[in-house]
């Protein structure tokens, strides 16, 4: 079986998810399109890089990502860094002929995304952006139903991504709250996951009307370089620094196919953990998904007999997308890891077949153009068109 040597950059939380996926993918999808080999991991922080090599099972480590780009044995570059270095690394990787998996959001600006997309296209390398939630079998099933016309024409929709890990004023100022490093706050970090999902299920966005807010104006400076999510708290007396990105964004959307709806994303919703939902209404039925019950898709079809019509639950399993490769019993329990394993499989399959992966850098660029329109709209409080992709 063909082997693919991986060079992974950034030894934090996402490196764990990706490393588990490289190890697990061949066990779920056998024979695998190619065998991932965890060759080289990089992190600017030497102890984190060394620990990452040992913990995630890489053959060696470096503190300079250029070593991965210049290494002729590396086939795939996997970018798990903060957003502000995605573009530089991806463009260097593309120009070195490496296939690229990049964490989301793709970049800080649409201009960066365009350059990444064109560099990949010019060098004919396969790309993927890690919008993993669309890989959840229940979301893929929703797409299948929509494409089959099971709910008719899509009329409207709403989506959410609600978390509360940064709702506490003592939650530290990680890179996810500094515009120069992350670009935007809740919008880029979690909102783009739902933008990608709705774009995948409903269609391209034409215009948006948005509102954003920053509730916690300054936060305690974070100790250490490791990204402190979850319940990290700044200790008493820790100096505080200004937050210059959004904690909350809500936006209305008009799609090119006439459907319209709304998306809300915040990391400040006490009681909400990883609350990704969508509800889609069509002329012949409705679909509802909640990631916190990710084995389930709620469906209601207008064709159901009058006295039996209502939302009912379809539990995903072997009869559903990716199901035969995952677990043999419906509702055995798909986890975050499985969404990353499916993501890795689709990426490797596209490389092996010489086809486009999805979502790829063109999708990531489209999402950056949407984010840009959202930020512009929030400033003017008016409807803003989404610019077109420049090929
Ligand atoms: C933090 O909000 C975060 O880790 C996001 O960055 C991820 O993309 C999401 O999958 C989980 O939450």
Radius of gyration: 21 Å
State the assembly state of the protein chains: single chain
Series of H and E elements: EHEHEHEHEHEHEHHEEEEEEEEEHHE
| Small molecules held by this entry | alpha-L-sorbopyranose
How far is the N terminus from the C terminus? 35 Å
Number of DSSP strand runs: 17
The biggest beta sheet, please? 9 strands, mixed
Poorly predicted runs:
none
| Helix proportion | 25-40%
- Please tally the helical runs, counting DSSP H or I stretches of 4 or more residues: 10
Shape: globular
Mean of residue pLDDT? 96
Strand content: 15-25%
Structural class: alpha/beta
**Spatial strand arrangement across the major sheet:** 16-15-14-13-7-12-11-8-17
What does this entry look like structurally?
- The longest helix has 20 residues, at 361-380.
- The strands form three sheets. Strands 16-15-14-13-7-12-11-8-17 form a nine-stranded mixed β-sheet.
- The protein has 391 residues and is α/β, with parallel strands linked by helices.
- Helix 4 links the parallel strand 4 (76-79) and strand 5.
- It contains ten helices and 17 strands.
- Helix 4 (86-95) packs parallel to helix 5 (110-122) and helix 8 (186-201) crosses helix 10 (361-380).
- The relative contact order is 0.17.
- The radius of gyration is 21 Å and the shape is globular.
- The protein has helices spanning 13-28, 46-56, 66-69, 86-95, 110-122, 137-147, 179-182, 186-201, 336-353, 361-380; strands at 3-9, 35-42, 60-62, 76-79, 99-102, 127-129, 154-162, 205-213, 218-220, 240-242, 248-255, 260-266, 275-282, 285-290, 296-301, 312-315, 384-385.
- Helix content is 31%, strand content 24%.
- Alpha-L-sorbopyranose is lined by residues 163, 189-190, 229, 267.
- Residues 163, 189-190, 229, 267 line the site of alpha-L-sorbopyranose.
């Amino acid at each position: 079986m063909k082997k693919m040597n991986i060079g992974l950059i950034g030894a934090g939380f996402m490196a764990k998810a990706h490393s588990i996926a490289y190890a697990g993918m061949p066990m779920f999808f056998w024979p695998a399109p190619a065998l991932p080999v965890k060759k080289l991991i990089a992190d600017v922080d030497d102890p984190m890089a060394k620990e990452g090599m040992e913990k995630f099972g890489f053959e060696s480590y470096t503190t300079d990502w250029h070593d991965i780009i210049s290494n002729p044995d590396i086939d795939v570059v996997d970018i798990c860094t903060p957003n502000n270095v995605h573009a530089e690394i991806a463009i260097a990787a593309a120009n070195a002929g490496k296939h690229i998996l990049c964490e989301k959001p793709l970049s800080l600006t649409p201009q960066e995304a365009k350059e990444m997309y064109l560099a990949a296209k010019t060098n004919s390398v396969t790309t993927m952006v890690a919008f993993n939630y669309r890989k959840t079998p229940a979301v893929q099933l929703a797409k299948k139903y929509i494409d089959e016309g099971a709910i008719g024409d899509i009329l409207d929709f709403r989506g959410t991504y609600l978390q509360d890990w940064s709702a506490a004023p003592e939650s530290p100022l990680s890179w996810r709250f500094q515009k120069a490093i992350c670009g935007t706050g809740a919008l880029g970090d979690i909102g783009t996951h739902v933008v990608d999902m709705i774009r995948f299920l409903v269609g391209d966005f034409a215009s948006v009307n948005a509102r954003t807010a920053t509730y916690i104006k300054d936060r305690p400076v974070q100790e250490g370089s490791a990204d402190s999510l979850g319940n990290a708290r700044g200790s008493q007396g820790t100096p505080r620094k200004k937050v210059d990105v959004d904690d909350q964004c809500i936006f209305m959307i008009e799609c090119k196919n006439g459907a319209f709806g709304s998306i809300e994303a915040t990391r400040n919703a006490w009681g909400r953990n990883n609350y990704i939902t969508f509800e889609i209404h069509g002329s012949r039925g409705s679909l509802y998904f909640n990631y916190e019950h990710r084995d389930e898709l709620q469906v209601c079809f207008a064709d159901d007999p009058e006295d039996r019509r209502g939302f009912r639950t379809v539990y995903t399993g072997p009869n559903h997308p990716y199901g035969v490769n995952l677990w043999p019993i419906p509702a055995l329990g798909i986890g975050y890891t499985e969404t990353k394993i499916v993501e890795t499989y689709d990426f490797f399959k596209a490389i092996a077949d010489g086809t486009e992966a999805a979502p790829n850098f063109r999708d990531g660029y489209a999402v950056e153009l949407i984010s840009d329109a959202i930020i512009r709209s929030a400033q003017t409080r008016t409807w803003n068109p989404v610019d077109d992709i420049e090929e």
